[in-house]
Specification:
Blueprint: E1 2-10, E2 39-50, E3 55-65, E4 68-77, H1 87-94, H2 107-111, H3 116-119, E5 127-130, H4 136-154, H5 166-173, E6 178-184, E7 190-199, E8 202-210, H6 219-230, E9 236-242, H7 246-255, E10 259-264, E11 283-289
Parallel strand pairs: 8-9
Antiparallel strand pairs: 1-2, 2-3, 3-4, 5-6, 6-7, 7-8, 9-11, 10-11
Length: 291
């Protein structure tokens, strides 16, 4: 049984459909029954994710021997060890399965299919670059939108409180030891970012965000791992997050390995931010000890 199917090509697809191809995908005989002079082609080409989490390549071949039509489906399991390769190397291997190359399919047919990488469980590579002055305003606005999006997911009513005021953003940029990074995807699009401070063996994650629309894809964890890798000298990382943001609490504890060490509230305010609790809200302080 198959849990999911990702179709690459259908012979009956019309121009403009994702599974359409201008190529005929006809070829000489590959396997099975054969009669001299019969016409052969691929009816469809796809990948299946099976119930046990493994994958297979599938190609349906058909033939015409005059008045009689026949065919058969080729199914080949994709070896698990191939998933440890880079995505491009993975595709180079996968295209060799199920007679795909025989019927004229190429690695470019796979690279061009949006969503296939995610279907196979590969994540887009993300690189961090230092925030430039010309990108600062757009970076700030995207971060504010992401934080506000999380806030509104909790407060369903029309609460106009701004989670990240401009002054807090610029204060974090100007802090001693501050570093700001844009997270950029393979296609050059900014998908998130972070502002940190690094002073000696102590580090603070001031803000980390993933752009609205690309959340829940592992980007935040990729950003954090890259930050850790850039600062192996840091022994203790600290960060804070509002009590209402369950997504962030889950992210920091269950994904990034932080531990909650303090809870700031109106009865126990953060001494560095005494004005914070006009909303009578609360703030968790997290730590991650690296050594």
């Amino acid at each position: 049984m198959h849990k999911e199917k990702f179709m690459i090509y259908r012979r009956d697809a019309k121009k403009g459909e994702a599974t359409y191809s201008p190529k005929s995908h006809s070829a000489p005989h590959f396997e099975g029954h054969y009669v001299e002079g019969m016409e052969e082609w691929a009816s469809w080409y796809c990948f299946n994710k099976k119930d046990d989490g493994t994958y297979e390549a599938e190609l349906d071949e058909a033939w015409n021997e005059g008045s009689h039509y026949g065919g058969g489906t080729i199914n080949v399991d994709i070896p698990k060890e191939w998933f440890a390769l880079s995505y491009d190397e993975f595709l180079e291997h996968v295209i060799t399965l199920a007679a795909a190359k025989h019927y004229g399919f190429t690695i470019d047919d796979l690279k061009d299919r949006k969503g296939l990488k995610q279907f196979f469980g590969f994540k887009d590579s993300i690189k961090l670059i230092r925030l430039s002055e010309e990108h600062t305003i757009a970076f700030k606005e995207e971060m504010q939108e992401a934080f506000q999006h999380g806030f509104m997911a909790y407060y369903k009513d029309d609460n106009q409180w701004q989670v990240l005021p401009d002054k807090d953003f610029y204060q974090s940029l100007e802090a001693e030891g501050a570093e700001a990074y844009e997270a950029v995807s393979e296609d050059g699009q900014r998908v998130g970012g972070a502002i940190i401070t690094a002073n000696g063996n102590m580090g603070e994650l001031a803000f980390l965000y993933v752009k609205v629309g690309v959340q829940s894809k592992g980007i935040g964890q990729t950003i954090w791992k890259a930050i850790e890798a850039m600062h192996p000298e840091i022994e203790v990382w600290e960060t804070c997050t509002p009590y209402f943001d369950r997504r962030n609490i889950h992210f920091y504890i269950n994904r990034c390995g932080f531990h909650a060490v303090e809870f700031f509230n109106e009865h126990h305010p953060d001494p560095n931010m005494p004005e914070q609790f006009d909303q009578e809200d609360g703030l968790f302080k997290f730590e991650k000890r690296m050594k």
